[in-house]
Design a protein that fits this description.
Blueprint lengths: L3 E5 L7 H10 L4 E7 L18 E5 L2 E4 L3 H12 L7 E8 L11 H11 L4 E7 L6 H18 L6 E7 L10 E3 L7 E2 L2 E5 L5 E5 L2 E2 L9 H6 L3 E5 L9 H7 L5 H4 L4
Parallel strand pairs: 1-2, 1-5, 2-4, 5-6, 6-7, 8-13
Antiparallel strand pairs: 3-4, 7-13, 9-12, 10-11
Helix pairs in contact: 1-4, 2-3
Bound molecules: manganese (II) ion (MN).
Length: 260
């Protein structure tokens, strides 16, 4: 039986990264594209609840949705796969890295999270660069990783965040590191300026502060020329905090007794 692979992105259905991914996966499974009809970067895990969604077939097995990347996974999963689920969800290839704390903003990573929540092995793949993206090495790597996951991983809730240096040839990459999520810091996160009518405006952006070379993080792996693979937990619970919180004796009794 032929495997079914659902792919999406947050750069929009016309982004080159999506189509090269499809091309490189086409011999390992039947590839279905369900992607936003325009760029929806930095939409995080948002879903559209307060208006109807439209899904347009643009060619065989390729659909554009006027919603978020997570909307695309939900619609694709429910409308295109009646009896058998897709075997794999891939989100990307994103134009720009998804590293450290930024992953909760990321439409790319959150679409993969949605796949895992639906019980489908998933990964997000992003090229760490701002311009002149070389998609081929990322597509080659995505193909190899897909084969490994399909063959060897039975836990269907696995989700990986993959970042790849922007190299012309995959031979320029030093190797693969399994990493933890690093910390990102921005300086001047909010830029203030004045519009042509004299009114103030604000622009969230800012420059990345140089990050110390923390051990084993995604950011460090990328800065040293490696591919970074971070396994992501769907369960965001900070288990280590629970004993500390218990010691605070937070209770409703003090409120009931009118003491605090
Ligand atoms: Mn993007």
């Amino acid at each position: 039986m032929k495997r079914k692979i659902l792919i999406t992105n947050d750069d929009g259905i016309h982004s080159e990264g999506l189509w090269i991914l499809k091309k490189y996966l086409s011999d390992i499974g039947e590839v279905f594209i369900v992607a936003p009809d325009r760029e929806r970067s930095a939409t995080g895990h948002a879903i559209t609840l307060h208006r109807p969604l439209r899904m347009h077939r643009i060619k065989k097995n390729a659909y554009a949705v006027d919603g978020t990347p997570t909307d695309c996974i939900i619609l694709g999963y429910n409308l295109l796969f009646k009896d058998e689920k897709p075997d794999l969800v891939i989100s990307g290839i994103n134009k720009g890295g998804n590293l450290g704390d930024d992953i909760t903003y990321s439409g790319t990573v959150c679409a993969a999270l949605e796949g895992a929540m639906l019980g489908i092995r998933s990964f997000a793949i992003s090229i760490v660069a701002e311009t002149n993206f070389n998609f081929k090495p990322a597509a080659q790597f995505a193909r190899m990783l897909s084969l490994k996951l399909l063959k060897n991983i039975s836990d269907r809730h696995i989700v990986l965040n993959v970042n790849i240096p922007n190299v012309r040839d995959i031979r320029e990459i030093k190797g693969v590191k399994f990493t933890r999520q690093g910390k990102r810091k921005y300086e001047e996160l909010v830029i203030q300026n004045v519009d042509p009518r004299g009114k103030k405006y604000y622009w969230i952006g800012g420059n990345l502060e140089p990050v110390p070379n923390e051990k084993d993080t995604d950011i460090t792996a990328i800065s040293r020329g490696y591919i970074s693979i971070t396994p992501v937990n769907l369960d965001m619970t900070d288990y280590g905090r629970i004993p500390e919180l218990k010691k605070l004796q937070i209770s409703i009794n003090t409120i009931k007794n009118g003491k605090n």
